[in-house]
Amino acid sequence: MSDHPSTYKPGSAIERWLDTRLPIIRFGADLMSFPTPRNLNYWYTFGGILAFCLVVQIATGVVLAMHYDPTGAGAFISVQRNIMRDVNYGWLIRSIHANGASMFFLAVYLHILRGMYYGSYKAPREVLWLLGCVIYLLMMMTAFMGYVLPWGQMSFWGAKVITNLFGALPLIGKPLTTLLWGGFAVDDPTLTRFFSLHYLLPFVIAAVVGLHIWALHVPGNANPTGVEVKSTTDTVPFHPYYTVKDLFAISVFMILFAVFVFYLPEALGKVDNQVAADPLKTPAHIVPEWYLLPFYAILRAIPDKLTGVLALGGAIAMLFILPWIDTSKVRSMRYRPTYRVLFFVWIVAAVTLGWCGSQEPDGKIFPGDAGPIFIDYGINTVTWLSRVAAFLYFGYFAITPIIGLIETPLPVPDSLYTPVLSHPAGVPAGAAAAPETKG
Amino acid sequence: MLRKFLAAAPLAGPLGAALLGAGLFAMAAPVLADTTEAPLKDVHWSFEGPFGMYDQQQLQRGYKVYHEVCATCHSMNMVAFRNLGDPGGPFWNPKYPNPNDNPVVKTIAKGAQIADIDADSGDTIRRPGTTADYFPSPFPNVAAARSANGGAAPPDMSLLAAAREGGAAYIYSVVTADGSKAPPGLTVPNGKFYDPELPGDVSSYYKGNPHKAPVGGFIAMPPPLTADRVTFDDGTKATLDQEAKDVSAFLQWASDPKMEERKVMGLGVMVFLLLFTGLLYASYRQIWRKVGH
Question: What is the predicted ipTM?
């Protein structure tokens, strides 16, 4: 898996026998002893947290599938009556699964932001980054199809809105939507195929996660300084140093998770989804789950449907091309003062888009009048705020190649261990990246 | 510990917290566009907060209101008679861990007439209910329900509290609204009632500036409750307010019957997780104590 020398010594006859046939224990031992930069901070724990999330989603999902009926007539009843009321701890398993999706996305967004901030996508880790983008895309597909399964009002109408987007594509649009629907409208066949794919895709995700970890272990971890590992003093074995740190972080994460599961089980959902799907009754506001809201806002910001769909795709595609549009030789934004500021602006733009996505297009930003109408909406409306935010979102990627060429980076340390020894002052945002004073 | 967790990285704790907060706000916030309904009436409920539980007496009174008033028009097809005797339910009795043995539940079930097919003749019959039966619907199908109610089928009540913004407070507000009083200038359509707390848009029924139209919406349900509509078995005076509160609490239970079990388990999980996290943090400090990082 990687070029670090194996330190595994088979301890018994049976281990020696197995080691020459299927060196699986050696494989595990090498993963555990993998040399890992000693300066990884808590933002690097989200990989472990995400692995935890995937396992939780698959484990709870397999149990839910045992009690779920993927038919238009039975889906809502099987979820709301059988699973929520009659299955032993069904309410708990479903609450973990439904809120787990949100937790999964929370963690993946922080994981992506960490990768962007510390330049983890740069050579030689482009494939690692690309595989991560693929996982994110698969996650969005899986989550969308999972949200359809309870067959409530928002499930049904969300499915209708999202599948209709594909209809905007030229030539393939219509046949593609028919294929997605399994007919000419969102109906039983749609639900059944979404269920089938919702069960399949997590295992595809698990496989790509395997590749993601493989691609991680070839170059080894990046780190907050962006300086590559140069000597053995730069690293510590993954176990016990990072197993314990990751476990602690997972445990903190579980506290937040449990708050939602036990005390706010429906807070992230929409009340409309507690009403069975009704094709004849459109809900007043069709809104996707929070983790898709920024993209929904970009879609709505553009008056032309096809352009909107392409912009939505483009917003995600930007992540894929990031390794090749970033021209800077410096990896970590710790040493990129200008790009760092733009990055925080980009985050604000993305969060603003998310808020816009949750609002009505003609909602007011400031109380009062919608303001003078510009093109189609008043300037004091959510639509215009989302246009400004979308401009900033894409502007960040447009300016990335230029910034890399004109920015004067701060001095980069000789080794990743230097800042640890010298307690640097030049850490961004006033936060304490400094090593702990004790231990 | 949490502060350190957030502050330990140069991405800045406040940023992460703001991101999380903004994200959670964005998804939890109702649509903030123009307000189209009056705020719901503020009621105190026993089931509020992380430790709040149902008031069993209230659930029993609420069941009576539901059974004698609501159930004449509304179905509740996800609740079975046995559920009334489940832990946290209106007639839960620790003497009968199996709710099917609970005499109160058995009596209630027996009092219902359930549509069935006679196994010998194949005829449609009505038989006394059993604890395993679900609450029977007042109408044989949705079309019949619609036809008998001026075109608007009364919604199923199993998840009514969960399916409305505001939950029990929403139901309380709707059933206590005085449907006879509409603001001047508003023409209430035939067979409808005006309620300022309902989401909706009444501007097309308003004579005058449509931007100044009153908030609220129309509902096909006549005001369902009056004082002394039911007689409570525990001697509580059946005022309109009392009936409304009790039936709202009962409908909250029907929507979320596992709430008590959930909150009790949640407390245990929280205590465990806090201790476990503390132990892991101590282990982390111990393992890293001699390693600069």
Answer: 0.90
